[in-house]
Every structure is written in structure tokens, then in C-alpha cells.
Amino acid sequence: MRKLLGLNLEELGAVAASVGLRPFAAKQMAAWLYRRRALSIDEMTDLPKNARAALAEAGWTVGREAPIAEARSTDGTAKYLFKGVAGRDIESVYIPDRDRATLCVSSQAGCRMGCRFCMTGQGGWQGNLDAGAIINQVLSVPESESLTNIVFMGMGEPADNIDAVLRAVEILTAPWGLAWSPRRITVSTIGKLDGLRRLLEETQVHIALSLHSPFATERSSLMPVEKAFATRDVLAALRGHDFAHQRRLSMEYTMFAGINDDLRHADALARLLKGTDARVNLIRFHKTPGFEGAPSDRATMERFRDRLNELGLTATIRASRGEDIMAACGMLAGKAKTNKNECDE
Q: What gap in Å lies between CA 145 and CA 141, rounded to an integer?
């Protein structure tokens, strides 16, 4: 079967033409897919019945798939398991917070960046999601209609699957798609430069760089990709773009006790980020199997935050959400319990 979900307007036009429909049918199909959220071609009632039948006979389907499992945290966070690729399922996390409702989406089944503290990376990489599988997460969670923000911070490195991520962003922001402002979308990356440059040049989404240490040797011990995409080169690319107005740049900094959390690190981080207009999100490490690190305590994180603020950066401590259901940062693995009613680590 071939999926309509994930196709852009030009591609939908080609599909429409293949069954004898006129060019304007592409916008009709897009409206059904992305705004009316149709589950079947039969629901596209402003297309002629014979054209709908021809689409089905040609093997086309909408391509929507419901979650196959879910888990709910005591703090209101929800984690959803979706069918992935090559036998590795993927997870999305819904995070309600007062007037915001954020969905953290995955872009790959697994990850090949090899960050030592991340459960997704520990499981290896099984394949890329296509744009349809990314958009399906947005449209198929029960809270879909109430979402206010999307963050590409789930399983996978978005810049390592850049074509599909850019297509998903196009669908999210295009007038014929979901028509979201790019200011409602954040893409997190370790700094894979070819993909990052395309994000900077082809979109206006917010960028979050996973940094975790201001020192190259130390960062490479946590994140092997430092050897291929050095922080200095990544920051040079970021400095070439304006983040002072509508677009935001943030640094994700997971804090490990005795590893990257003393004031020497704060001072070096402030020097490193000088002139970038970057905000720093301090993240408590969530213990994962296979990594010996421990989380910094609250007092240490507060001292670190205050030092950064004194040095002219805007730094905040991100609230930890969903840890009891293995839905917090670095804990997504794409597995489920055998009863399929509850996600698992």
C-alpha cells in the first residue's frame, strides 16, 4: 500500500492526475489529510466517487495509524508507542503545562549518534521514519487537536534524517497543511552540520543544540559525534544566523554529578556561548542502564544556573516530566509490554 500522508502539494497533484482529477484536487486532498484529518479515502467526499475508487485500486491509502500502546504519568505526561521500522517501534511524548500542550516526536527508529547516556542510542539505529510517520504522530495522539507546540526531541537525530524532517516541517507550516507558525516548532540536534545548515537555511523553526559540556574532550567522551562535528564548527554555523528576534536558539545541557556540573564548566560555557543569543536549558539526568553517571542535585543545578545568569546568559532549569513512565529526556527506547496496553522501557 502507498501512503498519502506525508506527501506535499506537488506530489498530491501527481497522484490526483494519475486518476484523472484536475490540479485543484491536490488542495482538496491536502485539506482532508492535514486539516480535516481523514482516516480513509472514502471520507474525501468532494472527490468523485470513481476517483476515490481508482485511488484505492491503485493501492493508495491515507496511512494513518493509531498508537499501539500508551502510558500515563502521575504528572499528566503521556507516552505513546507507534509502529516504527525494521522491527523497532518509536515513541512520542505528550507534555501538558498550563496553557501549553507539547508533543515530542521521533524522527528515527533508534539513533546512530551514540550518546552514552541516552537509551535511544544504546539500542542502535534501525531506520529513518518518512514524513508520513512523523506527521502521523502529530495527528494520531488523542490530544492532537489541542497541541500548541511540536518538539523534534524524541527518538533519533533529526539532522540525520533531514529530508523527512524538512518535509514534515513543510506540512506542519504550509497553508495547505496544518498552517502552524514555525515559532511553534523546535528541532533538537547534536549538530550534524549538513542537516543543521539545511534547517537554518530552509526553515524558521527554533533550534536546540545538545551540548552537555563546553570542553571538546569531555563532550566527546559523552557524545562521540564531537569528533565528527566539533562544537566550535557547529557554533560557527549557528552564529551566521539571526536568533535575536522571532527565531530562538537554545542549548540543552544535561547535568551529571561530578562530570560537567561545577562552576568551572559554567564559566567555560558562558565564554563559549558569548555572542550567540542562546538560552541554556539545564536538564536533570535521568538514570539509564549502561551509563554510570548520576544526576546532579538540585542545589548544584541552581548554583550552575545562577552563575550563568550572572555571566550574562539566560539559563533555566527544565522541569523533569514523565520519569515514572520512562518518558523523560534520554529515556525513550521504543519498546512495549507484551499486553500492548502500557509502554515500557
A: 9
Q: Where does the pLDDT of residue 164 fall: very low under 50, low under 70, confident under 90, or very high at 90 and above?
A: very high
d(CA 301, CA 200): 31
Q: Which three cell numbers stand for residue 231?
A: 562544537
Task: Report the alpha-carbon distance of residue 130 to residue 168 in Å, rounded.
Answer: 9
φ, ψ for residue 310, nearest 5 deg: -60, -30
56-104 per-position pLDDT tens digit = 999 999 999 999 999 999 999 999 999 999 989 999 999 999 899 999 9
Cα angle value 94/149/250 (rounded, 5°): 105
pLDDT tens digits for range 106-162: 999 999 999 999 888 888 899 999 999 999 999 999 999 999 999 999 999 999 999
CA dist., res. 170 & res. 4, Å (int): 15
Catalytic residues: 91, 329
**Distance between CA atoms of residues 58 and 50, nearest Å:** 12
Helix (H) or strand (E) holding 92, with range, is strand 88-97
Per-residue b or e along 132-166, where b marks 16 or more CB atoms closer than 10 Å to that residue's CB = bbbbbbbbbbeeeeebebbbbbbbbbbbbbbebbb
Backbone angles phi, psi at 321, to 5 degrees: -130, 140
The separation between the first and the last C-alpha atoms of the chain, rounded to the nearest angstrom, is 31
Q: Which residue has the cell 506542519?
A: 172
Angstrom distance (rounded) from CA 333 to CA 264? 33
pTM for the model stands at 0.93
**SS3 of residue 210 by DSSP:** strand
φ and ψ at residue 83, rounded to 5 degrees:
-60, 130
